[in-house]
Amino acid sequence: MRKNMWVTVLVGILALSVILSACSGGSNGNTSSGTGAKEQTTDKTSAQVVKLKIWGGVPEENGPGDVVANWNANNPEVQVEYVRYVNDDSGNTKLDTALISQTNAPDIFISYGETYFNRRMNAGMTASLDELIQKAGFDVDAVIGNDNVIRQDGQIFYLPAMKQISMVLFNETALTAAGEPLPTDWTWDDYVALAGKLTNNGVFGSFIEAPGEILPKILLTLKQPQDSYYDAEGLSSFGSDAVEKGMQLQKQLYDEKSMVSWPESISSNLKPYSELFTGQANMILGGTHLMRYVKNTQEFPREFKVAFAPNPQYAKGEKVNIAGFNDLISINSNSAHKEEAMSFISWYLTEGNTAMIPGGRIPTNKQADMDEVVELFVGEAEDFINVESLKQVLSIDYVFPKQVKSVAYAELTKILTEESEKYMMNAQSLEQAMEKVKARADQAIQAESK
Amino acid sequence: MKENIAGYLFILPNLLGVFFFIVLPLLFSLYLVFMDWDYLKGFSGLTFAGLDNVVRMTKDEYLGRALVNNAVFTAVTVPLAMVTGLMLAVIINRFVYLKNMLRTIFFLPYVSSLVAVSIVWSVLYNARSGPINSFLRDIGISNPPGWLASPQWALIAIIILVAWTYIGYTLVLYMAGLQGIPKDLYEAASIDGANRATQFFKITVPMLKPTSFLIAITLIISTFQVFAVINIMTQGGPLNSTMVMAYHIYLQAFQYYKMGYAATLSWLLFCMIFIVTLVQWRSQKKWQQHF
Amino acid sequence: MTKLQFNAMLIKTITTSAMLLLAVIILSPFLWMLSASFKIQADIFNYPIEWIPQELNWRNYATVWGEKYQFVQYYWNTIKITVFTVIGSLLTSSLAGFAFAKLNFKGRDFIFLLYLATMIIPSQVLLVPRFIVFDYVGLVNTHLSIILPGIFSVIGTFLMRQFFLTIPGELLEAGKVDGAGYWRIYWQIFIPLAKPALVSLLILTFTWTWNEYENPLIFLRDTSLYTLPLGLTNFVDENGTDYTLVMAASVSALVPLIVIVAFFQKWFVEGISNTGMK
C-alpha cells in the first residue's frame, strides 16, 4: 500500500513535468519549438522546404511584410519568416542572444549602425560573404558600389540595403510666419540661430534626439567623415574643436530654451517625428527614415506642410550627409542555409527592397529611380509635404561618412555621450568635458589595442 | 529508518529543484568571479582572470554611485513604508468604518504589476505637462521638480512610487499584528492613566516588534534588488542618479556581456544583503523563537 | 453615556471620511490611468484634470487588442505559467515542508538551515549562470525557463514548515497507530488541515509569478511567448509617447488582476498576513 503511494508521487511528478514540457511546446507551436522540429527534418531531406528566419527592426507593416510575401510567393522551396525586434538596447540584446542560441537562431539579420554590427562581427557571428556572393552571382560593384561596402581584412561581412539621407524637417507654416526662407546651404551656427527665431508660444524651435544624435558627434563627423573618432596617430579625435563647438552649440540650444531639456527628452522618451507633428517643435533633425511618419496623416493629423532642408554643414559649401549606408544585412555564421540566405539577400538588394521605399527606405541599388522614390515617399500626402524641397534634398550628391576603424567604437560613443551629458546638465564645465572626453577615449583605445 | 527514507523522499522533489536551480548556479556564479568571459564568443571566450574582476570593481565609477543609491533607496523607502503602514494600520484598526474596504484599497498597489505601475507613474511624473506638476503649479509652486528628468529628484520620485506600492504590504501585516495584541493590555494601561500616545509607544510598538522585524527583513532584501522600476523608468539616469546594483549587474551581463564581472558584482550585492541581515538578526534575538 | 457613544461615532465618521479621502488619493494613479485611456492624445494633459473624459474614445482599446499586438496571447502565456508554477510549488513545498516539520530524518536541521540561507541570495546572483545553463540545454526562450525555477520555492517550503509545526505531532502518531503510511498521513490528515497555509502560498506564488519581470525579460525572446509585463513594456517601446495608447495597454494589463484581488480580497489579505504572523 505504502509503496504504491510512493510510486504515485513519483509518477505524478513525472507526469507533471511531461505535461509542462508538452504544454510549453504546444502553445507556441507556430514559432519556437515547432520550427525547431522542422529544421531537423529539413536537414535530413533536402528536397523539403528550407525555412529562413530574418530578424530586422522595421515593423512588419512598413515594408518587410510585403517583401516576405513577394519572396515566398515566388520561391516555394525557400520560405522566409520575418521577426521584428525593437532596435534599442534590450532589443539588440535579444538579437545577440538569439544569434548564439542553439535552437531557432536567425539565418539573416539586419544591424542598424556600426556599433551593433561591429560587436556582432567581432564576436564571430557574421559569416564571411565573399564566396557566397560569388556563388550567387551577385555583383556588389554594379548594385551597391565597391566603395560603399567596408571590408574587414579584405572580407565582406555585411551588405548595406538602405541609403539613408539625413535632413532637417520644418513646420513650413512656422517657417513662413518667422519670415525665414528654407535653408539650402547652411551651417550649425545658422541652425542654432534659426532655432531661436522659430521658438515662440511654448513651441520649441528645434528638436534633436538625445542621446542618439548629439552635436559633438555630428560636427566631428562633418569635419572628418572618414573614421571620425580617430586621429592620425590612431588615438581619439575627441580633442578636436569640432567636438568643442558641437557641445557649445547644443548647450546653447538648451540655454536659450529653443529645445526641450536633455534629461526631459530622455525621460519622456521623446521622438523627433512626434515632436514635429504634435506641434511641440517647429524644426527637427531627422532623415529619410521618418518619411513613413511624414505621410501618415491619419495617425498624425496636422494642418501644416512639412518642408525639407539638407543637414547643416561644418562650413558653408560642403556636402557631407551625416547618415549614409545602413540596414547592414549579415548571415549568421551558424546558419545551416547560408546559400539560400545569400540568394534571398541578392534578390532583396536588387529588387526586393523596393517594397521598403514607401516605408521611407531608399534602396542602396544604384539603379533605383529617384523620381519613383520620391513618388513612393509622398504617397497620397502631397498636400502635407513640400515635394519640391524633398526632391531637392534627395538630389544632392552627398559625401557620406565611412567608418573603417572600429577600435573601442562602442565605448567611444558612450564616453562622448556621457561627458557631453554632464556638460549639458551643468555638472561640469566645457573645459572639464573636453579634457575628460579626450583622456577617457585615448585610454579606451589603448586598453583595447593592447 | 523508514522515517529517514520517507523524509528524504518527501523533500526530494524540492531538494532536487533547489540543487539545480539555486545551488548549482550559485557555484557556477562563484566560478565566474575568477573568470573573464565575453559571452558572445561562446565558451572559447572564457579565460581565467584571477582577481581581475575584483580589482576592476575598485576602478568602476558606476559602482560607487550604485552602492550609495542602493543605500539611500533602502534607508528611505523601508522606514517610510513601515511608518506610514503602521500609522494607517492603527487608525484603520480602531477608528474606522468600512475596515475591509479601506484595507483592500490600500493593498491594491502592492499586488499590481510593478511594470504597469511604473509605466503609469512615468507619465504622471512628466515634467513639462504631467498631472503631478500641473497640480503643483496650480497650488502655487511655479517651479515644480523635474522628477525623472532631474538628477536631484529622480531617486526621490522612484522612492515615492515604491513606497506607495509597499504601504499595502506593511499595512496588512501590521493589522494582522495588531489583532494579536491582547485588549486587556490597553485597558490596564488606560486605568493607569496612560494616554493614547503613551499606549502607542509603550504597548503597540513593542508588541509589534516581531512583525516589524519580519517586514524590515523582507523589505530590505527586496529593496536591495530593485530593478524593474529602474529599467522601465530611468535606466539609471539622469547622470547616473538612479544607478543601482541590480541594474548595473544587468547592464554588465546583458548589454556588455561581461559575464565574469557581472557575477562578481552580484556577489558583492549578496555580501551586502548578508551582512545587513546578519546585523539585524543579531540585534533581534526574538526572531529566533520563530524557528 | 449616549453622548460618549455619539462622540465616538462622530470621531469614527470623521476618521473614516479622512481615510476615504486618502484612499482616493492612493488610488488616483489608477483612476488617472483609466480616464486617460479613453482620451485622445491632445487631451491627455488637460488641466484641471478631466477625470471623466468628454467622450469615451474606445479606439485605444481597439488598437491594443487589435491584430498587431498579442494581448490575448500574453494573457494566455501568463495564465499558463502562473497555473503550472502555483500547482508545482504547492506540491513540492508542502511535501518538503511536511517532512521538515514532522519527520525525523538524519541531517534534517542541517539541510533546513541551508535552505534558509538560500533565501537571502539575490536573484541577480543566479541570473547569469541560469541564463548560461538554460541557453546551453535549450531552455532559453521557452516557458519552462520561468516555470521550473518558480516551482522549487524555498520560501514556500519555509512557510509550509512553519505551518505544519503548529499542528500537534500526536496526529502523526495516531495515524501511524492506525497503520497509515507517511503518504496517507500527509495527504489525508495534514493537507486538509493545511488549507490556510496552502491558500496563503497560493496567493503569494500567484502574485509573484503573475507580475514577474526580470526572469521573463532575460529568458524569453519571441514576442509570442511574452508574459503580460513583458508584452506591456514591448508595447510601450513601440508606442513611446502615445500616452493614451500606453494607458489603455496598462489598464488592459492591470484591471483583471485588480478585479480578482478585490473579489478575493479576504484571501489575499489573509494570505499575505499569514506569512507574517508566525
From TrEMBL, chain A:
SUPFAM superfamilies listed in its UniProt record: Periplasmic binding protein-like II
Pfam families recorded: SBP_bac_1
Gene3D superfamilies for this protein: Periplasmic binding protein-like II (3.40.190.10)
Alphabetically ordered keywords of this record: Coiled coil, Signal
Coiled-coil segments: 420-447
Cleaved signal peptide residues: 1-22
InterPro entries: Bact_solute-bd_prot1, SBP
Name recorded for this polypeptide: Extracellular solute-binding protein
From TrEMBL, chain B:
Compartment(s): Cell membrane
Entry annotated with the keyword Zinc: no
Domain of life from the UniProt record: Bacteria
InterPro entries, sorted: ABC_transporter_permease, MetI-like, MetI-like_sf
Transmembrane annotation, as ranges: 7-34, 71-92, 104-124, 153-176, 212-233, 260-281
PROSITE patterns in the record: ABC_TM1 (PS50928)
Entry keyword annotation includes Transmembrane helix: yes
GO terms (BP aspect): transmembrane transport
Annotated membrane topology: Multi-pass membrane protein
GO cellular component: plasma membrane
Family the entry assigns: Belongs to the binding-protein-dependent transport system permease family.
The name this protein goes by in its record: Sugar ABC transporter permease
Species per Swiss-Prot/TrEMBL record: Paenibacillus roseus
